């Protein structure tokens, strides 16, 4: 009997009828509980937040109770997640969201931006379900109360998981949609309940255009990593989504934009989808998170893999083995190099895997899962992991290839230093102007 030979291309291809598997909510609560000690300290060291385009008195929450959140939501935040008090971005943003303002919110990486929009939206949805007036919201198949758009599938899954965590036992239904998820099963998930829908632009546009997601009840539109979504790669998709027939115009919805960076060239696009009175909540920084210790190492291009291996092997020797190494995320600029770097390290005894846009979605999610669960010490990635991805106890980011621009650098190294001291190492050929800029901070 001849053994069937499976080509490398077939192994990489996302399986037919692929269904992504989210982590159990108890695992998510446990992760938070393990980090509770660090969380208590980090709030005081968040960047200070200023409010722009608003002249009235500003309310900043000191305690979660001040927001008058629904009881089960408050239990999920304080008792099950062990978030003792609001982060600074949350303390500033949540009162404005609850007061029905559009906002554009900028805070350093790891500052709690996801909670800053999920918590008030879930609370508003819970209250709307109990309302007896025109504000009442009744769940309906494929007709979300809120849509949250993120630029990558991995970030959609992460925001989805966090939404499920905050909404546990509240009666609020969370759904997700993104490419490579079997489209029929994906639509069935949405029909089973999607008070909050977390989505990538492409799949969302497809579902809305053909009427499989109806927007007649939509109250909130959120762009997570808004500067990326309003840049050239995604801007047309966003315009097509908000321009579809029946999509509430900006005066009839609440629009929330969140990112760690807001470069000038996306500001006009942001203003197009926000009400004129939108509030800008900002740390006034387009700089790296100050909890990250940055290091720059001069390395010639042809010596990068050897230097990477040298750094990681040296660390393994100091700590007593690769199983005790810091979890390390290595960024490269090409999909091919992410695979080559992981293979190079594995051949030299360092457990590593890779993630990039050419890998099947099942392999992308498997790689992130193995990294999160400590099955591998090193994840070699393209910028598919540069934004928003939160891996607990990720201590070290290595830029084997220098990124194309300053914003990407900020987002890349911002995968560490989120609630504790983080470290970044960046390979450079010389100390250019961009590097000198970061050395000042």
UniProtKB/TrEMBL annotation:
<dbReference type="InterPro" id="IPR000629">
    <property type="entry name" value="RNA-helicase_DEAD-box_CS"/>
</dbReference>
<dbReference type="InterPro" id="IPR027417">
    <property type="entry name" value="P-loop_NTPase"/>
</dbReference>
<dbReference type="GO" id="GO:0003724">
    <property type="term" value="F:RNA helicase activity"/>
</dbReference>
<dbReference type="InterPro" id="IPR011545">
    <property type="entry name" value="DEAD/DEAH_box_helicase_dom"/>
</dbReference>
<dbReference type="GO" id="GO:0003676">
    <property type="term" value="F:nucleic acid binding"/>
</dbReference>
<dbReference type="InterPro" id="IPR001650">
    <property type="entry name" value="Helicase_C-like"/>
</dbReference>
<keyword id="KW-0378">Hydrolase</keyword>
<dbReference type="Pfam" id="PF00271">
    <property type="entry name" value="Helicase_C"/>
</dbReference>
<dbReference type="Pfam" id="PF00270">
    <property type="entry name" value="DEAD"/>
</dbReference>
<dbReference type="InterPro" id="IPR014001">
    <property type="entry name" value="Helicase_ATP-bd"/>
</dbReference>
<feature type="domain" description="Helicase ATP-binding">
    <location>
        <begin position="94"/>
        <end position="280"/>
    </location>
</feature>
<dbReference type="GO" id="GO:0043186">
    <property type="term" value="C:P granule"/>
</dbReference>
<keyword id="KW-0347">Helicase</keyword>
<keyword id="KW-0067">ATP-binding</keyword>
<feature type="domain" description="Helicase C-terminal">
    <location>
        <begin position="304"/>
        <end position="441"/>
    </location>
</feature>
<comment type="similarity">
    <text>Belongs to the DEAD box helicase family.</text>
</comment>
<keyword id="KW-0547">Nucleotide-binding</keyword>
<dbReference type="GO" id="GO:0005524">
    <property type="term" value="F:ATP binding"/>
</dbReference>
<dbReference type="GO" id="GO:0016787">
    <property type="term" value="F:hydrolase activity"/>
</dbReference>
<protein>
    <recommendedName>
        <fullName>RNA helicase</fullName>
        <ecNumber>3.6.4.13</ecNumber>
    </recommendedName>
</protein>
């Amino acid at each position: 009997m001849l053994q069937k030979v499976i080509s490398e291309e077939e192994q990489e291809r996302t399986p037919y009828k692929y269904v992504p598997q989210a982590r159990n909510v108890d695992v998510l609560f446990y992760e938070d509980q393990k980090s509770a000690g660090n969380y208590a300290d980090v709030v005081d060291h968040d960047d200070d937040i200023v409010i722009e385009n608003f002249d009235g008195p500003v309310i900043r929450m000191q305690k979660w109770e001040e927001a008058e959140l629904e009881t089960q939501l408050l239990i999920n935040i304080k008792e099950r997640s062990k978030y003792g008090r609001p982060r600074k971005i949350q303390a500033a943003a949540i009162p404005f969201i609850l007061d029905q303002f559009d906002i554009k919110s900028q805070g350093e990486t790891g500052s709690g931006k996801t909670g800053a929009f999920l918590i008030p939206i879930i609370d508003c949805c819970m209250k709307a379900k109990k309302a007896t007036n025109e504000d009442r919201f009744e769940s309906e198949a494929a007709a979300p109360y809120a849509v949250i758009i993120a630029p990558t599938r991995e970030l959609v899954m992460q925001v989805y998981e966090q939404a499920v965590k905050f909404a546990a036992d509240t009666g609020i239904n969370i759904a997700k949609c993104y490419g490579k998820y079997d489209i029929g099963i994906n639509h069935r998930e949405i029909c089973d309940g999607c008070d909050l829908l977390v989505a990538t632009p492409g799949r969302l546009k497809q579902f809305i255009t053909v009427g499989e997601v109806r927007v007649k009840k939509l109250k909130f539109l959120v762009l997570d990593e808004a500067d990326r979504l309003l840049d050239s790669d995604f801007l047309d998709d966003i315009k097509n989504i908000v321009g579809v027939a029946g999509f509430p115009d900006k005066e009839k919805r609440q629009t929330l934009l969140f990112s760690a960076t807001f470069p000038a060239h996306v500001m006009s696009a942001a203003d197009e989808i926000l009400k004129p009175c939108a509030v800008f909540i900002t740390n006034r920084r387009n700089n790296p998170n100050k909890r990250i210790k940055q290091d720059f190492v001069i390395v010639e291009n042809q010596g990068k893999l050897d230097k990477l291996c040298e750094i990681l092997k040296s660390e393994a020797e100091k700590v007593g083995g690769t199983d005790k190494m810091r979890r390390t995320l290595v960024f490269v600029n090409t999909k091919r190099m992410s695979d080559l770097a992981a293979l190079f390290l594995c051949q030299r005894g360092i457990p590593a895997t890779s993630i990039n846009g050419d890998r099947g979605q099942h392999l992308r999610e498997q790689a992130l899962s193995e990294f999160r669960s400590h099955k591998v010490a090193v994840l070699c990635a393209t910028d598919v992991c540069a934004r928003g991805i939160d891996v607990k106890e990720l201590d070290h980011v290595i830029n084997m290839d220098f990124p194309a621009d300053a914003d990407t650098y900020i987002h890349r190294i911002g995968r560490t230093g989120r609630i504790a001291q983080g470290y970044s190492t960046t390979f450079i050929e010389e100390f250019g102007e961009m590097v000198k800029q970061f050395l000042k901070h």
